[in-house]
Specification:
The protein has about 350 residues and is an alpha/beta fold. It contains 17 helices and 11 strands.
Length: about 350
C-alpha cells in the first residue's frame, strides 16, 4: 500500500473513532510540532480533534532570566559555546547574538563534544558550554564533563540549564490544562523509556503515545489515543527506536553527573524537580560555581508576546497579536519564533 493510501486509511479510522466531543491532543516535542505543520495534519483531522503544541522546544522554554545569566557569563572574558538557535533568543535586555555583535566571544557548536575539543586545543581560553535541552542532549553533555575530568581539561565547564519533561507535564495538568492525550517525544523517550510517563494515566487519567515523526507515525499515534481515551494508558508507537526501559547506559551517565533541581520554564514559571544541576563530585566543571553566577529572578514581560500561552497550549501561535505582523522569522520577538522547532516558527513557515 502506498504512503498516501495508508494516510487516507488512517484518516478514515480517525473519523470512525471520533469521540464526538472536543478532544485536545498536545504534542510535547518540537520535531512533532514541525512535522504536524509540514504535513498539514491539523487540516485533515475532524474539527473537534485539536492538535496543540506544548513545552517541547528546549530553546523556547529557556526563561528570559536564564538568558540574562548567560549574557552575564559572556561578560566574564570567556568563550560561550552554544547551539545555534539559542543565540537569537531574547533575554530581558539583550541576546547572545547582540552580545556577539558587540564583540563578545560566542561560538556555535553542533555538539558539546566539539566544544570540549575546542577547549582542549585552546588551553588559554575558558570555554563555557551552555547546556540546554531535554534528555536527548543531556547524556552527551554528561560525557564531556566526565571526559574533561579524565583528561584534566580545566578550562572547560558547563552552565547547566537542562530541563526534564515529566514534571513539566505534571505542572500543566495540575494547572488545569484541558489536554486529554499526549503525543510524547520520541527522541527523549529513546533515552528515558516509557515508564516515566505512567503517572499521566494513573494520576490524571490522561493517556499518552510515544510517537515517531513521519505523518503516518503521528496519525497512528492519534488512532491509539482515540482507541484508549476511555481507559487511558501509556503506549509506544515508535517501537523501532523506543523501548520501555529506554537507554540504560545513557541513564547511568546522566545519574552519575547530574541531580534534580528546581527550574524556571518560560511561560510555566518555576517547576520543582524539573531541572538538573551538576553534582558536587564534578563541581569544578560547573560554570555557575566557577564564575559565581547567581540566578537572576527579574522577568520583564515582552509587550504583546504570548509565547507563554503558546507553550501552555492555551492558544495557537496565530492567535498572538504579534504573530506575522511584528514577529516574523526574519524579525522574531519571542523564542517560539526564534527556534527552528518552535511552534510559532512552524505555523509561520508552513501556514496556520
Amino acid at each position: 500500500m502506498q504512503q498516501t493510501e495508508m494516510i487516507k486509511k488512517a484518516k478514515e479510522i480517525i473519523d470512525i473513532l471520533n469521540p464526538g466531543m472536543q478532544f485536545n491532543i498536545m504534542e510535547v516535542c518540537g520535531s512533532h510540532t514541525m512535522a504536524i505543520s509540514k504535513y498539514g495534519l491539523r487540516q485533515i483531522l475532524p474539527k473537534n480533534i485539536r492538535l496543540i503544541s506544548g513545552p517541547g522546544c528546549p530553546v523556547c522554554v529557556t526563561a528570559q532570566n536564564e538568558i540574562d545569566s548567560v549574557i552575564e557569563l559572556a561578560n566574564k572574558n570567556v568563550v560561550i559555546a552554544t547551539f545555534g538557535d539559542l543565540i537569537r533568543v531574547p533575554g530581558n535586555k539583550s541576546s547572545l547574538q547582540a552580545e556577539r555583535a558587540a564583540g563578545k566571544d560566542v561560538k556555535v557548536f553542533y555538539s558539546p563534544l566539539d566544544a570540549l575539543e575546542y577547549a582542549e586545543k585552546n588551553p588559554s581560553k575558558e570555554v563555557v558550554f551552555i547546556g540546554i535541552g531535554f534528555e536527548t542532549t543531556i547524556p552527551t553533555v554528561a560525557v564531556t564533563i566526565k571526559e574533561a575530568e579524565e583528561k584534566n581539561i580545566k578550562n572547560y565547564s558547563v552552565y547547566c540549564l537542562h530541563k526534564t519533561m515529566p514534571e513539566a507535564l505534571r505542572a500543566l495538568l495540575e494547572g488545569g490544562s484541558k489536554v486529554q492525550g499526549f503525543l510524547l517525544p520520541g527522541h527523549v523517550s529513546a533515552i528515558t523509556g516509557s515508564k516515566i510517563y505512567k503517572f499521566l494515566a494513573e494520576e490524571f487519567g490522561v493517556g499518552g503515545v510515544i510517537s515517531g515523526f513521519e505523518a503516518l507515525d503521528i496519525l497512528m499515534s492519534i488512532i491509539m489515543l482515540l482507541k484508549n481515551y476511555k481507559s487511558p494508558s501509556i503506549e509506544i508507537q515508535y517501537k523501532r527506536v523506543v523501548r520501555e526501559e529506554g537507554n540504560v547506559e545513557a541513564q547511568k551517565i546522566i545519574e552519575e553527573i547530574f541531580e534534580p533541581c528546581d527550574s524556571t520554564w518560560r511561560g510555566l514559571g518555576e517547576i520543582k524537580g524539573s531541572g538538573l544541576k551538576i553534582k558536587d563530585k564534578y563541581k569544578d566543571f560547573d560554570a555557575a560555581l566557577k564564575f559565581d553566577i547567581k540566578p537572576i529572578r527579574e522577568e520583564i514581560e515582552i509587550k504583546g508576546c504570548r509565547c507563554g500561552d503558546v507553550l501552555k497550549g492555551n492558544i495557537y501561535p496565530n492567535e498572538c497579536p504579534l504573530f506575522g505582523r511584528v514577529c516574523t522569522s526574519e524579525n522574531p520577538v519571542g523564542p517560539c519564533m526564534v527556534s527552528s522547532e518552535g511552534s510559532c516558527a512552524a505555523f509561520y513557515k508552513y501556514g496556520a
